[in-house]
Structures are given as structure tokens and as C-alpha cells.
Design goal:
Elements (H helix, E strand, L loop, with lengths): L19 H21 L22 E8 L2 E6 L2 E3 L2 H23 L8 E5 L5 H14 L4 E3 L13
Parallel strand pairs: 1-4, 4-5
Antiparallel strand pairs: 1-2, 2-3
Helix pairs in contact: 2-3
Length: 160
């Protein structure tokens, strides 16, 4: 006497894979990893700066530079005029800073605020191009060197 389902039509052995043990093992591994990952990853406690989008105040004495890389060659533009090499950029930077210092001293008798350098770097430019411009402008005597970036679409400033 055999025990069956009653209809007797499907007498083949069951060939489906039982996935319940596989799911159980995966859940156990998930729980283990959730517990052990924070223990394994060790970081130094730091107070990271908060990012705030501040609108750039453009002053006529500030220097606007654009940097891009074309066919492996770095191109630097002072405003819209191309600067051929780093030595020319250094000389032009020293001259602009010196002229601004002399202008402020003639007007007020002292230097109140040094001009800034605003760099617009192409996203595809390598770091050597942009880093070279930063280094050159710091050698020229500029203290403040900043970057102009484009905020993501739909982003509103915190000051609005």
C-alpha cells in the first residue's frame, strides 16, 4: 500500500531545488557582516567641514584663470587670453599683484585687501595642469587661490 496525493497522475520524483537552506545561509551571512563590518573598519575621529555654497564676489582686481588639457598639453587662460607657459604666467601674476599693491597704497596709504585667484578647471584636465597653475600663482605671491565650480542642477544656496 502506498501513500499518494490521491489523483495518481504525478508519480515522478521531485526535481526542484530546495532554496530554503540557501536563503537561511544567506540571511545568517548578512547578519554576520552587518555586525562585523563596523568593527573591522577603523577610522580616525575627525570633525569634517560643512560644505556651504557661497556666491563668489567678483572684484575687478581678482584674477580669473581657466585651465584645460588638450591632447595632453595644459592650456592656461588669463581671462580669455591664452598664457603660453608657466614663466609668463608667473611674471604676469607678479606684475598684477605688484600693480594692485601700488594702487591700494596710492589710494589709502596701506594695503587693505590682496586680490584673489579664481581658477576654473575643466573636469577632464589632469591634476598636473591645475596643480601647476596653483603652484605658480602661489609663487607669484597670491595668498587666496580658489576654485569656481558649477553646483548641481536644482541646487539652492544656503544664503537664499
Amino acid at each position: 500500500m502506498s501513500v499518494g496525493s490521491g489523483d495518481g497522475e504525478d508519480d515522478r520524483p521531485m526535481s526542484d531545488i530546495n532554496t530554503t537552506p540557501l536563503v537561511d545561509v544567506m540571511l545568517v551571512l548578512l547578519i554576520i557582516f552587518l555586525i562585523t563590518v563596523p568593527v573591522v573598519i577603523q577610522t580616525v575621529p575627525l570633525q569634517l567641514p560643512q560644505v556651504v555654497n557661497e556666491p563668489t564676489t567678483t572684484k575687478p582686481e581678482n584674477v580669473a584663470l581657466s585651465v584645460r588639457e588638450v591632447n595632453g598639453q595644459c592650456e592656461t587662460y588669463w581671462g580669455v587670453q591664452r598664457v603660453p607657459d608657466k614663466k609668463t604666467l608667473l611674471d604676469r601674476g607678479v606684475g598684477a599683484l605688484r600693480a594692485e599693491i601700488e594702487r591700494q597704497e596710492a589710494m589709502t596709504g596701506s594695503v587693505t585687501e590682496l586680490p584673489e585667484v579664481h581658477i576654473r578647471g575643466d573636469a577632464n584636465a589632469s591634476y598636473r595642469c591645475i596643480g601647476g597653475v596653483i603652484y605658480t600663482m602661489q609663487r607669484a605671491g597670491f595668498v587666496k587661490v580658489g576654485f569656481i565650480s558649477e553646483p548641481p542642477a536644482g541646487y539652492r544656496s544656503a544664503r537664499l
